[in-house]
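Lay summary

Proteins are chains of building blocks that fold into shapes. Our project writes down both the chain and a compact code for its shape. Here are two examples, one after the other.
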Amino acid sequence: RIHIKYQPNVDDLGSADSARINMEYYAVNNPVFAVQGDNVFEICVKDLMQFHRKKGALMTIVLREVDNVEGLGIADINKNNRIQRFVEKPAAKDAPSKLANTGLYVLSPEVRKVFKEKGVKQIIKEKNRLDFGYDFIPYLTKSDYPVYGYTLKGNWFDVGTPKNYLEAMKKLLHGGFSMLTDFGGKISRKQVWVQGESNDSEQRRQTIIRKIKQGRIEIEGSVLIGRHCQIDDGVRIVNSCIDNFTRIGKGAIIENSAVLDRVIIGEKAEVRDSIIGRHATILSSGRKPTKIGAISVVADDVTIEEGCSLTETRIYPHQHVRGEFKHQILMSN
């Protein structure tokens, strides 16, 4: 049984402040494994907790060696894995190491006392913020609290950007995560899954499988198709995830993309290297095909008129869009 607790109806001033509020509200007296929401990772939690206890750490930060430090928090550790210095999002030339903060933390319950210290209260007062990377971790290291770095060996993706999200999706589909290699409904030995267990969804599933075998739907690479999907003849899907109740029109192309639940994609549409949100409608026709590509993101409940072209463009929810857009962000009125 899993008991889920939510943050009380109190506004927080950052990630560390959220931890402070919840640990105090629920009177937490055991170590906490805190996970930032934009992470996909493989880790042995048992090993992590043993490391934390053995070191006598107030806080353990899960670190991962990276090639590019851009946009990441970077830690400098000694031979005992104690973090001596932490810099949030440094320039490459200023980075103390290649060990990046993954946004995975273990916090001892004693941290509740630290949250009440004068220095922490001063940070909140001056900056109107208490962020783990910018504020709280540097405060702990400068105050000589025992903060340690646990180096992650398994896969880790920060999926906080569309590009990273798509890279993680493709890694997952190609079996790059040992903890999740089957999504249910796998077709023979191919890396292709068509989901559906109920009587109604199984009928849709068998229709799609039959079309794939007959060559009426072209599949390349690793593809996951959800339940109750309708895919017309001539569709080509490459290294993509198609979520539940999605409809894809005749001759459409979906490549290296994530298409979420209940999307409608019209005839001859082309979606490449992009993310299509839930309940979106991509109108398209043979006469006026719609083209979406180059890491574009279409948010939930958006309608794209036929003949549109989106290149590296992001569209916020609940909009009706027509025209050609390159390198733009379209926000609602």
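And here is the second example, written the same way.
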Amino acid sequence: MRVVVLLGGDSEERDVSLASGAQVANGLRSMGHDVLSLDPTCGLLELDQEENLLKGTISQLPPVGVHNTDSSMRVLEHLSQLRAADIVFPVLHGGIGENGTIQAVLDFLGIPYVGSDMLGCALSMNKDATKRLLRASNIFTPDWVLASTIDEVMRALSFPVICKPVDGGSSVGITLVTNEEALRKCFDPEQMKGRTLMCETFVPGRELTVGVVGEETLPIGEIIVSGEIFDYECKYRPEMADEIFPAELDGSVTAMVSRIALEVHRALGLRDLSRIDFILDRNGKLWCLEANSLPGMTTNSLLPKAAESAGFSFGEFCERLLVIAMKRNKKNS
């Protein structure tokens, strides 16, 4: 198949997106597909640029000035390549790639793509919207508050709490807060960078993650961190966390976690792929933390690790996602 992989972009998750996209493109080529890599911020990537990305030697920051451009519109500069493709594979983490903007553009143009549509992406990207839908679906999620002041948090929740941007990803900006002084730092304008902050009750327990592919769950993973929480550093520095696939769980617990992961996937209207994150507390109660419509796709990311546990090579897994998306598009056309 002729595939355009979208990667990079200008969000704070650009580094992760470049790494994910380059590896997806490489994996698809290993399966015999004709692949172009397109960065909405900088344009088409040459093969030597992709190779440098795979080696980790290319600059991972956009050129000066591009942050003020509308990357979703820059995609249109390459409309001929997009229309010539059999399918587009978005691997744009954060920003326009994960909040539904790119998906809306592709839908408007009638171009098929892998992954959730505009609504599913928007709902899962906004953690407040996600949690409201989870509560409406009778799925447990920790108490939370969208707050613009410290007093709002203090009135609604008790320490410890987790503070994070309401629309962030890759664990960027997540902080475990145990006292008022630490909470005050989270509300520093430079720290917030104009974004809305969500605070939620910290639930101690085992951190579990479940990949959903099509309408099936992959083997459940457990994340054991060296620190207190699975933040950005833990996620992308291998020595900071152990990621165990499959997690050592009783059969009944495995069935429960897999079932609820599918319920979350469906409640948010997600499709093709997602990763659902949970805490299993000391009493055996399962709390959904969030859903990821476009999880990391490096060979070391959680979703590909779950796929490897299920017997897929990285290339086979990427191709599986293409096949699922193509079948869905043919069914709906």
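What can we say about the second shape? Residues 2-115 form a domain with the Rossmann fold fold (CATH 3.40.50.20).
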